[in-house]
Amino acid sequence: MKGKGSFHKAGIIFTVLCLCGIISFTIAEATLRVLGISYPVFHTYDPIRGKALLAGKEGWYRSEGAAYIRINSAGFRDREHTVEKKQGTYRIAILGDSYMEARQVELKDTFGQRLEDYLRSCTSPQYNEIEVLSFGQGGYSTTDELLTLRHHVWPYKPDMVLTAIFHGNDLVDNFPKINTCQGRECPDYRRPFYYWDEGQLKLDSSFRNWTFESFKDRMLLTGVQYSRTLEVLNKAMRVINNWRVKQYTNFAFQETGLSEWVYAPPRSALHHEAWAMTEGILELLTEEIFAHHGEPFWALVTNPSQIDPMQRRDLKERLGVDTLDYPEQRIMKLGGKLHVPVVPLVYAFQKYVDEHQEYLHGFPNYRMGAGHWNEKGHDLAAHLVSEKVCAYLTTR
């Protein structure tokens, strides 16, 4: 009888705790909604690429920089575009990651919008205007970008596909086993990735399989779309990450997913494999574009540690190298082999920072010199790429 009484008492305590939790959660939700407090998460689960921006989602993003974000009806951070291309229009589709999505700045200040602005002065008897469509999404690998091209971009019939390559994490994202588990940070298999099979690249989409981890991730990603409380908890994690970034001198590589080994020649078998994988995916991407009678173009996005003078000096010392342009040199060589024009932004960015003593990466609410491009970074990148694109279009 005593055991039965203890069990009954434990049941009552458990029920009371659950009710208290539900009541507390309800009060928190109501309070946050009444006060208008919201930190929206803009992406959701996607069965093709792991995650994707949620069409129609909008709200403020203030974790790094500040901008009001609206995701268009096609599920991309851009203005609305008709699928049908107007006669006499030359279309450029941009692929890329968070640099191209650019939540940190207003839409008008993003690389894609500024590129279109600059290209208005580029004229040719073959077309009346140049239209730029941005398909960039935060956290994307080159594999994700290739799948975006195949499943979302081709209906718009772009004439050029401009891929923004960010070597700071593309190699790691394309080749998840380059990471070893450190603490709770393990390889990210919650996305599609390619692997070699008898010399051929094959796609692994096993992230779709239901596991405890995948179920948890999908439920949290769904829940945060409806719960202000979960939004606040997610925001708290971002605040903690921002605080961590500010504590380190070599802060660029304290940011999630960035790898410094990329900026020196490969020093291990895994480094060689990671490079071979990324180059193989870029070849697939190029073949895909040529097969659709499009014109490929690459822009090499800058890592803040390549640009900020203090970080540049420290990174060169740690790696024992004289320059930090190994990825640029290697990717330009591949571009030459595949007949793809390449714009390496790092040299002009370094020159600009040295001459003007201004930051092209970073924001006051994050850290200047770290993170993504600010408005000046987007503008300079767009200006440099527009010159190369216009020259290419008018001389071909």
Structure description:
It is a single chain. This protein is an alpha/beta fold and 396 residues long. It folds into two domains: 1-37; 80-395, Rossmann fold (3-Layer(aba) Sandwich). The chain is 45% helix and 14% strand. It has 13 helices and eleven strands. It has a five-stranded parallel sheet with strand order 6-5-7-10-11, sandwiched between helices. A two-stranded antiparallel ribbon has the order 1-2.
Order of secondary-structure elements: HEEEEEHHEHEHEEHHHEHHHEHH
Structural class estimated from helices and strands: alpha/beta
Examine the coordinates and then state which fold CATH places here, giving the name of the CATH topology of the largest domain.
Rossmann fold
Give the total of beta strands: 11
Helix content: 40-55%
CATH superfamily of the largest domain: SGNH hydrolase
Strand order of the largest sheet: 6-5-7-10-11
The biggest beta sheet reads: 5 strands, parallel
What low-confidence regions span 5 or more consecutive residues with pLDDT below 50?
A: 180-187
% residues in beta strands: 5-15%
- What is the CATH first-level class name of the largest domain? Alpha Beta
Whole-angstrom Rg: 23 Å
| Cα-to-Cα separation, first versus last residue | 91 Å
Shape: globular
